[in-house]
Amino acid sequence: MFASSPSLFPAEGVAERLTATGPAVYGSRQSAQRARIVPAPETLHPALWRAGSLARANGRVLATGYDALNTELPSGGWPLGGLTELLCPQPGIGECRLLRPALSTLCTGAGPNGGRIALVGPPHLPNAVRLVGWDFSPEQIVWVRADKPADLLWAAEQVVRSQAFGGVLIWLNQARPGALRRLQVLAQAGESAIWVFRPTQALRESSPAVLRLGLVPAGGDALSILFHKRRGPLRDTPLLLPLADPLQAGRASVRSLPIQPAEPFTMDPATASLLAALSSSSAFDALSDASDHAVLDRGASAPAAAGRASTPVV
User: Fold this and answer.
1) What's the whole-number average pLDDT of the chain?
2) Of 129, 57, 62, 132, which is closest to residue 98 (Cα–Cα)?
3) pTM assigned to the model
4) CATH topology of domain 61-253
5) At what angle do helices 177-188 and 149-162 cross, to 10 degrees?
C-alpha cells in the first residue's frame, strides 16, 4: 500500500531529469539561482548590513577630513541623523581639533540651517579668536550654558529638535541611557551631525549611539582612536591619527578683514561758525584762563574755606 503512494516517490519525469543532470550540477544551479534572488541587506533597510563589511548609510554622512579615519567609518564619514559618542579621559585632548574639518565644512556649506554650530555645555568658554582662526564666524556659533544636568539635557533636546543647526556638540558628564535614547530618536528626524562627549567611565554603560569611539592622547599631536561600536566588523587595534598643528593651521586659515572705504567728513554751517568763534584769540584766551583757574590750579589760588585746611589737593 505504501509503495503505490505518490507522495513517497518522485514522478518519473523528475527522476529522469535528476539522473541525467546529476546531483552536483543541479545543486550548483539551484545555489546560483538563490544567490541571484537574495538582495543586498542595505537595499532592504538602511539599518541592515553584513557583519564582515562596513554599513552604507546611503550618503547620510559627513566627511571627517582624515582619509585614514574615513576608511574605518561606515559610509566613510561622521553619521548624519544619529548620535556619535566620543569618550574622552578629560577635556582638551584634541577632540575639537578632530572635528575641525567637519565643522568647517558645515560652516561654509549652504543649507536651511545657515551653517550654524551649537555648543551645549562646553567645559570652557569658547575662544572667539581661535574660532576666527579656524575660519568660523562667531555669528555662526551658539553657546548654551546650564548649571544643572537636568537643564543641560533639556537644552540639548531642544537644540536637536529644532533642526536649526548643522552640527551640535554636547558635553554630558552625567546622562542615563534613557536620555541618550531620546536624543537618538530626535536626531533620526533630522540631518544634523551630533557629537556627544562623555567621560571614559561611561563605557561601562549601554549607549544607543550609532557610532562610539574612545579618544586617548598619543603624544606628538596625535590621537589614539578606539572603535567601541560601529556598524561593521570589530577592530581590536586602535587607530593612531595625527592631528594638524594648531598654530600652523590657525595661521594658514586667518582671513584678512575687508577695508571699508573712507567717507569724506562734512560739517554743517552752524557747527562751522561755532568752531570759528571759539578759535578766535580773545575767546580762546578767556576760556583758557577760566579753565586754568577752575580746574588745573584751583587748590592753590582759591581762598581756603572756614574750618577747612588750605593745603592743595594733589
Assistant:
1) 74
2) 62
3) 0.64
4) Rossmann fold (3.40.50)
5) 10
Higher pLDDT pick, 19 / 81? 81
C-alpha cell at 244: 594638524
- 187, 83 Cβ separation under 8 angstroms: yes
CATH 3.40.50.300 domain span(s) along the chain: 61-253
3-state secondary structure 218-263: CCCCEEEEEEEECCCCCCCCCEEEECCCHHHHHHHHCCCCCCCCCC
What average pLDDT score do residues 288-301 get? 41
Catalogue the long-range contacts made by 88-94 (C-beta closer than 8 Å, 24 or more residues apart): 88/197, 88/198, 88/199, 88/200, 88/215, 89/199, 89/200, 89/216, 89/217, 91/123, 91/124, 91/171, 91/197, 92/123, 92/124, 93/215, 93/216, 93/217, 93/223, 94/215, 94/217, 94/221, 94/223, 94/243
